[in-house]
From TrEMBL:
CDD domains: secretory_peroxidase (cd00693). The record marks R65 as: Transition state stabilizer. Coiled coil: none annotated. This is Peroxidase. GO terms for biological process: hydrogen peroxide catabolic process; response to oxidative stress. Ca(2+) 1 binds at D70, V73, G75, D77, S79, E91. Removal of H(2)O(2), oxidation of toxic reductants, biosynthesis and degradation of lignin, suberization, auxin catabolism, response to environmental stresses such as wounding, pathogen attack and oxidative stress. Belongs to the peroxidase family. Ascorbate peroxidase subfamily. It catalyses: 2 a phenolic donor + H2O2 = 2 a phenolic radical donor + 2 H2O. It is found in: Secreted.
Amino acid sequence: MAGACQRLRSLITLLTFTTLLLGPVRGQLSTSFYSNSCPSVFSTVRSAVSNALQSDPRAGAKLLRMFFHDCFVQGCDASVLLDDTATFRGEKTAAPNANSLRGFNVINSVKASLEIACPRTVSCADIVAIAARDGVVLAGGPTWEVEVGRRDSTTASLSEANNLPGPSWTAAQQIRAFQAKGLNTNDLVALSGAHTFGKASCNLFQSRLSSSDPSMDATFRSTLQSSCGTASAMVDLDQGTPVTFDTQYYTNLQMNRGLLTSDQTLATSSQTSRLVNTFTSQSAFFNQFTKSMLKLGRLGVLTGNQGQIRNICGAVNREV
């Protein structure tokens, strides 16, 4: 018996040493996945996002939106980055993405740098996840340890991308869509808080401007009517603190100043209004947002020998 216990202790010691030496087991996400294979990954992404923000204050919001649009279609597998070819249709031309999803240049720049530092090691899917976190942090939002170890897909789904939650959806529709992904109402309302920064095109809420919608503050409507001279004009999602990641989004909803129907409905639905009120507290919002981002980042991930590590983010590797 004593000999068996000793052998077990020796095995545990060996496994612990091996994990420390080689890093996390391939096939699972870990915050230390690249500790040995590419230790510069996090600093490289942070530098690129910081530089992007110098020229474009909306860069953080764009990168966060890209992460959501990636993970909600097929999972967090960088399928949203794939370009169309003569024989392949990606997700970039889907209605929710076409001419509105941006930030690809930041991801491509990071990928090019990492291919020099640690070739064929870091997935595009992980770069998108890290960049989304850094975009939030650099805008004044919370931080969290990003789990990495994802691999990139070799497929995309235009049809799924066309069914992403839309700006006119009710709270009930959004709840069902999130539940289908294994996300709950807390996750829905917290992740919707991403609309505390960034912009939206006037055509996404034009119908609210020409009606007597009681869920929109009259003064706010008047301001928007002045700003929306054309349907393609862009306005801040949060008119109060448009480039800061804070709780103003939820305060706006309480005052009937949510820009999109999908936002304002969260304040009027009995299923979500309590959470809107709760998340006006920064600690409550930040705490739930980080938890929800981790859950979102685990959706449908490819690990181990699944998928591939793309050489460039916009195209699937081709065997020679």
